Amino acid sequence: MLSLSDWITTLSLVFGGCCSNAITLEHITARYPNAGVLITFFQFLIVSLYGLPKQFTFNDPPESKHAANGPNGTVSAPTTPRRRWIPRLKNRKVPLLPYFIQVALFFVLSTLNNAAFAYHIPMTVHIVFRSGGMIINMILGWMFTKKRYTVRQVVSVVVVTAGIITTTLSASKPKSHTAEVLGTSNTSLYAMGISILGLALVLSGFLGLIQDWVYARYIAPAEAEAASDPTGQSLWQEHMFYLHSLALPLFYLSKDNISMELTRMSSSPPVFLSLPQSGPLAPYEAGLIVPSIFVYLLLNTCTQLVCVVGVNRLTGRVSSLTVTLILTVRKAISLLLSVAVYGGQGNTEMWVGAGLVFIGTIGYSTGIKIQSNDQKEKKD
SS3 for 150? Predict the structure, then answer.
């Protein structure tokens, strides 16, 4: 159970990090729509660097119970872990193979989501479309795990589907005479972007199935032992680190694209960043001149770290129902901020579609709670 201070910290990380990250992401992709891979690389890199120190220890691995037995079969007193000069990686709770499978899916869908901006996908549509993951989760759950759903859940998914279709069509309409002239090419480009987001949504559903299996197979038993292992690391920290760090070598395949986008960004208008002045240098103005877009790239990278840490802290400490509801509210706030800051993206159809998606998401989540309560009553 989270304390009040834990709630304040976690919610501040989620809402502050994720909402500000969406704002900086929209600023960058509006000017450099092909920078999706570059943005993803820096996001994965900073999360990996943040989690790296927490994965090392200078203690030798604990001895097994058999090794602790005395010569007469008696259990000897536990010894103090020996220190070592060279650090080693902490023992993982999950084997590498499940991580590799998750990393492959997570890397591809993250790259696809950011690459979709190159196909004229507005941030508003991006947010709403990615909120429809429950549709895929329901279909895959019914097909592969034989899950059964309540009437409320099915109706909620239909509402979400209608909302996504409405929002998608609202942004595909040309808004000017010039756009009407280029309507065919723009529509095909937009359709390609929606297809990319759709593929990412399907991959996200499969990733969810694998994560559910990993949780039941490895994480749930490990949580029972966590209280008796004070030297062990938090499971969400391990998951966050390996999911991002193991994907870094894959960016080598996109090194040319990353280098090209960095070159383009370096030609953006410069901005002067003043440095703190004190002592004998106080009368003089000191600072750095950097391309302005690099400031937004740095902010986007840092806020992504805050967002990822917040979401992982939340996922590891509360129920999936609570996580879904909080992230739904977060997406709604991101949508409002996007329209408020950049404007010109909202219309009646878009707001109707977004409302249907968020209402359907909440209805689906409450349907999960009703279903679990019914199952408990049957057992009783």
Answer: coil
Q: Half-sphere exposure of 45 toward its Cβ, with a 13 Å CA cutoff? A: 14
- Going from the C-alpha of 130 to that of each of 34, 259, 357, the distances in angstroms are 19, 28, 10
Closest residue by Cα to residue 59 from 231, 189, 300, 239: 231
Q: How far is CA 221 from the centre of its chain?
A: 25
Beta strands in the chain (DSSP E): 56-59, 83-89, 270-274, 287-291
Report phi then psi at 88, rounded to 5.
-130, 160
pLDDT digits (tens, 9 = 90+) for 245-285: 999 999 999 999 999 999 999 999 998 887 766 656 555 66
List of long-range contacts for 120-123, beta carbons under 8 Å, 24+ apart: 120/33, 120/186, 120/189, 120/190, 120/193, 121/171, 121/190, 121/193, 121/194, 121/197, 122/171, 122/345, 123/22, 123/25, 123/26, 123/29, 123/338, 123/342, 123/345
- Separate counts of helices (H) and strands (E) for the chain: 15, 4
